[in-house]
Structure prediction request, 81 residues.
Amino acid sequence: MPESPRMVPLYIARVADLGIARFVAITCRHCGHVAEIAVVHLRERLPRDSFVKYLGPQLRCRQCHHKGAKVDARSALGYYG
Prediction:
């Protein structure tokens, strides 16, 4: 199945590449807490040229307050399946 022209590979995806009506799944590496953040909120708070792969170490868990998370932005980038 060919990729659509708007699909960006995960390793070079930036905040500006995320779909507007989507969510990004965030999983805490310490306690496993899962949260979904709307792309709109990420775009409001972060520079649009920030790489998505570097967001994980900057995020702090609301439950255990440890820094470091796994960011799953595949659905917000248009990956299905």
